[in-house]
Amino acid sequence: MHTRIFLIGFMGSGKSTIGAxxxxxxxxxxVDMDHLIEETAEMSIPEIFxxxxxxxxxxxxxxxxxEVCRREKLVISxxxxxxxxxxxxxxxxxHGTTIYLKLSPEALxxxxxxxxxxxxxxxxxxxxxxxxxxxxxxxxxxxxYTRATYVVDGISLHAEELASLLRDS
Length: 169
Ligand code: S3P
Prior knowledge:
Blueprint: E1 4-8, H1 15-26, E2 29-32, H2 33-41, H3 45-52, H4 54-68, E3 74-77, H5 88-95, E4 97-102, H6 105-114, H7 127-145, E5 150-153, H8 159-167
Parallel strand pairs: 1-3, 1-4, 2-3, 4-5
Helix pairs in contact: 1-8, 2-4, 3-4, 6-7
The structure holds shikimate-3-phosphate.
Shikimate-3-phosphate (S3P) binds at residues 11, 34, 45, 79-81, 119-121.
């Protein structure tokens, strides 16, 4: 029985899209941590970064995660940096099942260029800068991401594949 399912991975890896579909299939509630932070702070993520800075954002992200860990039957889409700060990867692994949606830097770059979501960490970067940024940051973050219960290929992933992975385990 998977009480809480945390989807983790880099920005643009499809956590929110797949998460909402997976929650529907399992009859679980879907929670997007970034949205919860925005609702609680009554500010958008870019506003939080520009007005308060990343350190404050990480603190609020941690607070929201603690709250989420008290709820049950949830699929949770986490922010790309969450597993890599304030021991949040341990917290998630101790309170649920973690699934890393793994994509190559090239695939992530393609998706992020097409994405309409404003992301403060990549705002204003040229294509070359974005490419270097993703490659470098992904390298640093993968040591956290790969501690997930499951690592799955995020390219053309269907929620049903995740649902059956969870049912069979
Ligand atoms: C971040 C990812 C974002 C959001 C914030 C920081 C990161 O979420 O939490 O902009 O550090 O990678 P998504 O992964 O949903 O884009």
